[in-house]
Design a protein that fits this description.
The protein has 322 residues and is an all-alpha fold. The chain is built from 11 helices and 2 strands.
Length: 322
């Protein structure tokens, strides 16, 4: 229905009024080219799946990650201490290592074991990235719960600058999962946009992921302020406090994990409604063309083969009518 509505934008009602002497549209706001309409359709079709990647860019907000790292024992040796702000490097390292292993080791090995080329579609990689994002926030919630209990047990509930008898390496698992989420979802998104959009829209395809990251930052601030406002009603101490030992950032992480779980369900609905991608359609057409062999019997084409051609002709006529 929406596609037919948009198609009306490129229909010439009156050639004398709609078309200028040079063949262009007299009023570009009332008459569009077919390419413009198709580009708009492509963007509108992709937007629901694009919106599912916003949650991957949502972070805890503020400087909590640094404060959390500063409260832990960051000594690797007696003379070397990891800076609190350097733990995020684990995410970048994870992305680099995974991309290299995925292209050079995992895919070739899987193809060799199965005996045919193996490839995870871009849309499926986006979904896997959302799953890792859920695991990231769930793991972060468990680690923060453990850290806070240790702070209370050691009597540092009112001392936000105290260093606990707990290794900073506890933060590594959640950062690894965050890196895996970025590696799957970010690369999957970029590949998905480039394959689904025509070549004339390559600049838009390259900008969509960055736009999603910006939307994730805005959503982070919105969630952060909403949780702070709701949990501090009635003069109570909210979950978001300057003293991370008194605050309940573990519950905040669980809220983010719950939102990620809802986002995965939303992704499944969007993925189902989107249908097959361009790669899947081209692969299916190649398989059909290679398997299509006319069955003849006594010089006549079989009824099955003839019926298939009749159905194809009917489909083409329906498309032309539309």
């Amino acid at each position: 229905m929406l596609s037919r509505f948009l198609n009306k934008a490129c229909i010439i009602q009156d050639p004398e009024k709609d078309i200028a002497c040079d063949g262009s549209a007299s009023d570009p706001w009332s008459l569009c080219t077919v390419e413009q309409v198709e580009e708009l359709k492509a963007i509108m079709k992709v937007i629901p799946l694009w919106s599912t990647g916003i949650m991957v860019s949502v972070n805890i907000g503020g400087s909590f990650g640094i404060l959390q790292a500063k409260s832990l024992n960051r000594h690797i040796t007696s003379h070397f201490e990891v800076p609190a702000g350097s733990f995020s490097v684990v995410i970048v390292i994870t992305i680099f290592i995974w991309v290299a292993l995925y292209d050079r080791a995992i895919i070739p090995l899987a193809s060799k074991l199965i005996g045919k080329p193996v490839r995870i579609s871009a849309k499926r990689r986006m979904g896997i990235g959302l799953g890792f994002s859920l695991l990231h926030f769930a793991t972060a919630a468990i680690v923060e719960t453990t850290r806070r209990r240790r702070a209370i047990k050691e009597g540092h509930i009112n001392d936000m600058h105290a260093v606990l008898n707990m290794s900073g390496m506890w933060l590594v698992p959640q950062l690894l999962l965050a890196g895996m989420a970025e590696a799957f979802n970010a690369i999957g998104q970029n590949e998905f946009y480039y394959t689904e959009f025509p070549r004339t829209m390559s600049s838009i395809a390259s900008c969509l992921f960055g736009l999603g990251m910006a939307a994730g930052s805005v959503l982070s601030s919105l969630i952060f302020s909403t949780v702070e406002h709701v949990t501090s009603r009635g003069g109570k101490e909210g979950w978001v406090l300057d003293n991370i030992n008194k605050g309940r950032y573990d519950k905040y992480y669980w809220v983010l994990a719950l939102l990620n779980a809802v986002n995965i369900l939303y992704y499944l609905v969007c993925s189902w409604s989107y249908g097959p991608t361009s790669d899947q359609l081209s692969k299916l057409s190649d398989e059909n063309s290679s398997n299509e062999k006319p069955l003849t019997q006594n010089g006549f084409v079989s009824k099955v083969h003839k019926a298939s051609h009749v159905s194809e002709d009917i489909g083409l006529n329906v498309k032309r009518d539309n």
